[in-house]
Amino acid sequence: MSPEGAPQMQDTIAARPENLISGATGDWEVVVGLEVHAQVASCSKLFSGAATEFGAAPNSQVSLVDAAMPGMLPVVNHECIAQAVRTGLGLKAQINRTSVFARKNYFYPDLPQGYQISQFDQPIVGEGEVILDLADGGTATIGIERLHLEQDAGKSLHDQHPDYSFVDLNRSGVALMEIVSKPDIRSAEQARAYVTKLRAILRAIGTCDGNMDEGSMRADVNVSVRHPGAPYGTRCEIKNVNSIRFIGEAIRAEAQRQIDVLEDGGTIQQQTRLFDPDTGETRAMRSKEEAHDYRYFPCPDLLPITFSQAFVDELAAALPELPDDRKARLISECKLSRYDAEVLVADKETADYFEVVAKGRDPKLAVNWVMGELSAAFNRMDIGIADSPVSAEHLGELIDLVSDGTLSNRLAKDVFEVMLKDGRSPAAIVEEQGLKQVSDSGAIESIIDDIIAGNPKQVAQVKAKPKAIGWFVGQVMQKTGGKANPAVVNEILAKKLDLGEG
Ligand code: MN
């Protein structure tokens, strides 16, 4: 939860007709702001040296600081500060060279300190933006309000014992970046596009692994509805939504619930709600605490965080290419379609893979293989690019074998299937299986001569109906086990059958 700013007085985003939901009292517009908690990619926690690795045995990664033993003092992990600044740069955001850690006080069994160390009125990163690529080819700019660093809490375990609840503090003290958007999002689709782009940016710069099913990214979704042009309505916050699909479903369900309440003459209570993926509905969790309930104050154990402009400049200079820049480069350098470029850059590993395949080759062939055969194979095998049995180098070599005429497209697909199974180079597979395409015109000619001599009826037919040449091509392919180069076959056939006429 972020500190609540004053409600925005100005709203410059015009309602787009495709985003409106029609109701009995007219059209409704949904207004969404997202607070995304992204786990900082770092070896150790925000204020202790304990490890952060996912999936460790309960309470095996807990220092005395994380367990809030009396007298323990937090020590800032500099890498987490650098990661937050890198992320801020990736969001084209204001970097605040002075920021302050504050205590956010509340009681919960998974929070041994009795407060979370977070940032309140002086976050490390201020306003920035994320540009969405919309399905219609347009873009939408979503404002970033702020990014602050804070500690994660532990995890209560209620299913270990009939009478007791346990707590696992492995996550306690892990660094989170809370990235708060402005209420600029106007549909479930835009929210999904926003989280997708945000995740691509974080992954590209390496500040969060973006694995939502491991909890590395989760979103609190603020939803309200209004008639277009009206002031913002009362919002509800849906906590801890942990997949991009569920974010979309939660927004649709919550917007419709609010519309139904309002159209029945009711009012919206400001609430914290939960989305239940099984029912597809949101339900009330608790009424929303006000920000002052947390009694924020600067953490007396920590000095303000300050750093020089030189530190920021150094991180900026070393920042990897951002997804939007990469997309623009792939479109201009590789002449990819906007769609292809977007799909590739949405996942850094896929884009990296593509660039290795495309290097020194026709990018269009490379993109067809990566987004066609390769991606279909991954879907079939239920794996990601990181587990690809076919290396980018080998896929590139396969494309070369098609380009130089060694393999037909048909044979290349067969070789590719073998590559998927055993990860060998295409050259080795071609060699072993004798799959080389026959382009030697002498060999093909003598096969064709035999076919023409043995089938006078078909020869007469093809003269009346040139389309019947397909039958001859089929015969040649059968006799060569599909290995004859189709271009050479067609050329010789046309010549021979014409000659036969003379
Ligand atoms: Mn938070």
Ligands, deduplicated = manganese (II) ion
Count of helical stretches? 15
Helix content: 25-40%
Distance between the termini: 87 Å
Strand tally is 16
Average pLDDT rating: 91
State the shape: elongated
State the secondary-structure class.
alpha+beta
Low-confidence runs of at least 5 consecutive residues: 1-10
Radius of gyration: 30 Å
Number of domains: 3
Specify the biggest β-sheet: 9 strands, mixed
Oligomer: single chain
Task: Name the beta content range.
Answer: 15-25%
Topology overview:
Layout (H helix, E strand, L loop, with lengths): L20 E3 L2 E14 L38 H13 L7 E2 L1 E5 L9 E5 L8 E6 L5 E13 L3 E3 L8 E3 L6 E7 L6 H18 L11 E10 L9 E6 L2 H20 L7 E6 L4 E7 L9 E2 L6 E2 L2 H9 L5 H12 L3 H8 L2 H11 L4 H19 L10 H12 L5 H14 L3 H8 L7 H14 L1 H9 L4 H11 L6 H16 L1
Parallel strand pairs: 12-13
Antiparallel strand pairs: 1-2, 2-10, 2-11, 3-16, 4-5, 4-15, 6-7, 7-10, 8-9, 11-12, 13-14
The protein binds manganese (II) ion.
Notes on the protein architecture:
The strands form four sheets. Strands 1, 2, 6, 7, 10, 11, 12, 13 and 14 form a nine-stranded mixed sheet that branches. The chain has a three-stranded antiparallel sheet with strand order 5-4-15, with no helix packed on it. Strands 3-16 form a two-stranded antiparallel sheet. The termini are far apart. 37% of the residues are buried. The chain has 15 helices and 16 strands. With 502 residues, the protein is α+β, with helices and mostly antiparallel strands. It folds into three domains: 274 residues, no CATH class; 114 residues, no CATH class; 56 residues, Arc Repressor Mutant, subunit A (Orthogonal Bundle), CATH 1.10.10. The structure holds manganese (II) ion. Manganese (II) ion binds next to loops.
